[in-house]
Amino acid sequence: MDKNPPESTGPVHVPFGHIVANEKWRGSQLAREMQGKIKLVFEDGLTVVDFYLSSRSCILYITEADLVGGNGYRKKLVRVRNSSNLQGIVLVEKTQMSEQYFPAIQKFTVLDLGMVLLPVANQTEASCLIVQLVQEQTKEPSKNPFLRKKRAVLSEPFLLQTVQQIPGVGKVKAPLLLQKFPSIQQLSNASIQELEPVVGQAVAQQIHGFFTQSR
Question: How far apart are CA 181 and CA 201, in angstroms?
């Protein structure tokens, strides 16, 4: 009974304007790219979360190796999704090697868990995105998407980027869809007949097929 309990997924104290990073990222390209732009505090014992942006929001980083290596990443996503303390954002390395595995993690993260997923090409791109997310934390609570009601409709630009990833949608049709269906849940429940006036028959069938195949 004297073993340390597993990480509780929060709350963790994060100094204003800082990131609390899992010790495993010390010396990594991702950490090096962020240093000088944001203050990093490395901490041992973070077994689930990779980066805390605040005491209530965190980053789960899925590397190319994680994706290619199987579904082991799913357990930590579920733990954060089930936590009442945290809102998790999932960054996924989408590369030539991992691209074939991307649809599976996208469906699991966005559709099954209702979490925000953002694809990145590499750790350099990821560092820029994380710094941008930390800057969101400095906004007043009413404007900060992370401090809004938990699991409400995903906020821009994350919802927009998520919808753009659906086959056949892209940057032009995504905003049109979100005007008519302002949440992933509404979009996933839409019929082909409801989708057709917005995106046309062919894309409507693609969208409907994407959501129904994942159930």
Answer: 17
Q: Above pLDDT 70, what percent of the chain?
A: 82
Provide the token pair at 151.
Answer: 């699991």
- Which amino acid makes up residue 174? A
Average pLDDT of the chain is 80
When mean pLDDT is compared across 127-131, 155-159, 205-209, the lowest value belongs to 155-159
Residue 27 host element (H or E): none
CA distance 113 to 154: 12
pLDDT, greater one: 114 or 140? 114
User: Amino acid identity, residue 115?
Assistant: M
Q: Are 146 and 128 in contact (CB under 8 A)?
A: no
Least confident of 83-97, 123-137, 149-163, 196-210: 149-163
Output the six-digit token pair for 166.
């659906």
Which residues does 175 contact at the CB level (< 8 Å), separation at least 6? 160
**Residue 200: CB partners within 8 Å, gap ≥ 6?**
none
Question: 63 with 93: CB under 8 angstroms?
Answer: yes
What is the pTM for the complete model shown? 0.64
Contact indicator for 204, 195 with CB cutoff of 8 Å? yes
Which tokens in the block code for residue 180? 């008519």
d(CA 62, CA 43): 19
